[in-house]
Amino acid sequence: MEDFSGKSVLVTGSGAGIGRAAALEFARQGAKVMVSDIDEKGGEETVAMIREAGGQAAFRKADVSKAEDVNALISAAVEEFGRIDCAVNNAGIEGKIAPFEDQPEVNYDAIMAVNSKGTFLCLQAEIHHMLQAGGGAIVNLSSVAGLIGFPGLSPYVASKHAVIGMTKNAALEYGKAGIRINAVCPGGIDTRMLDSLADQVSAGAQNSSQMMDPLHPLGRIGTPQEVANLIVWLCSPQASFMLGAIVPVDGGFVAQ
Ligand code: NAD
User: Fold this and answer.
1) Which of 12, 14, 18, 122 best tests ligand 1's pocket when mutated (most atoms within 8 Å of CB)?
2) pTM, rounded to two decimals
3) What CATH number is given for 8-251 in this structure?
4) pLDDT at 104
5) Residue 57: which of 76, 70, 38, 75 has the closest Cα?
């Protein structure tokens, strides 16, 4: 087990799902965690879970698609814990499923604002801080949809390909400054997001596990914890030679 004691970590979108699992795992390994989400209730719940387990955490509401929120979040994390050693840009939305030619412009704009621009804004603010602080580690949440296409999900696929492009570029620009930036690409993971996608496709006829398990060579979807394990490892000293890596955690999905 890695030791993050004395380290402080920021996780966006940590009021639920993968972000919450990552926040809990960092805290379990000794980190002080700045929990952030647009959903105040979910964020406060994550903080309560960390504190109940004996960890240290604080919550700051922020919409990652808004520069003023992101900048205020970074300042709040630094004020609370002194610095940000690791950051996880996890907040994301899936939007509506529709054929390419029918995708509403508002769906494209909303998805790109959170998944792509949100990651861009967070990266900029985190890099500014880490350059002053002397280094750090950042993990961006892409997806298997950042590596291959998924019919019906064109804005989401575009946004997650954008996250991979940003990850590679930022890694190249800041590796020598001691900031390691990598991305993870989960396959189907058992969260609200996957439930929403399964509902849209099957209108409630199948749950996400019934629909998605057979699509994965391991025969099942993954758990938030299985993604959290990779995120935390990528931020740890064990991953000291990992830079600009795009790592699937997908039960073999993209090996097919
Ligand atoms: P989730 O919906 O369970 O959690 C996402 C969290 O992000 C929520 O708490 C939500 O309130 C928050 N959020 C949404 N918009 C926000 C905004 N503008 N600002 C701040 N927070 C915001 O989803 P999840 O499955 O845990 O997804 C986490 C990340 O993992 C996302 O980037 C998603 O695209 C990615 N991902 C998920 C899967 C999957 O199968 N679940 C697969 C691949 C990638």
Assistant:
1) 18
2) 0.98
3) 3.40.50.720
4) 97
5) 76
